[in-house]
Amino acid sequence: MGNIAKLTFICISYLASFNVNAESNSPRIIKLSPEKITQHNVDLPLNQFKSLEILAAKNVSSGQVPRPYQFTGNNQASLFGVDLNNNGIRDDYERMLLKSYQRSEYVAMGILAAERWDKLLRLLQSQKSIKTPYQALELFNDTIAINQCYYSLQQIDKTLISPVLSYFNNDQLLEAKYQAELLLLDIIGSKQTSFTFHQEPCERFAEFAKKAKTTKFAAL
Q1: Positive or negative, the Cα torsion across 137, 139, 143, 146?
Q2: Nearest to residue 112, comparing CAs of 32, 53, 64?
Q3: pLDDT > 70: what percent of the chain?
Q4: Which run of H or of E encompasses 117?
Q5: Which end of the chain is less enclosed by CB atoms within 10 A, N or C?
Q6: Whole-number Å distance between alpha carbons of 52 and 87
Q7: Rounded CA separation 51/109 (Å)
Q8: d(CA 143, CA 195)
Q9: Distance of CA 100 to CAs 14, 78, 189, Å?
Q10: What's the CA gap between 49 and 34, in Å, rounded?
Q11: How does pLDDT run across 125-148, given as a tens digit for each residue?
Q12: Sign of CA dihedral 149, 100, 102, 114
């Protein structure tokens, strides 16, 4: 037993020494993002720098978002709600993002997702932005990719909640979403056979971010 104990001690000492040497030889990495969400590594489609860049471009911060506003008159019938700070993001949705998500990456993702949902709802007012079945197909696939990306991230980050129901947060908006999707499918028409869903749905957020650098949200 004495020899086994000695051998065990030697093995543990060797492994400890190996770990110390490995750590001393490994380059130190400066972490800009918060610690890992869980014991697993989660690959977010946006890094912290890009996320903060988007938030700055859209004037999104807890100090700039308007306080809750009592709807009066025609505002109750507005499909897009109120945007008092005129940054193209519905105020109640903007407040929700800042209150619910501690990571700037998640806030930026919610903003980029809302841009696609805005575009979907605008079909009910005008079809000028969607001129071809291929543009309709792209928007349809983007909305699917957004849902798929959040679902995949939720498998790792159990605390993550998709913002989709916070955007479509009443019966009027849910019905508008349904009607807009029907209209989108009608525009796609026979091109429905061309559906090719994104194999890496979260990568679409990186593409959304590239477009966000040069374009701004349309005024609601």
Answers
A1: positive
A2: 53
A3: 70
A4: helix 104-122
A5: N
A6: 15
A7: 8
A8: 13
A9: 46, 24, 38
A10: 12
A11: 888 888 888 899 999 999 999 999
A12: positive
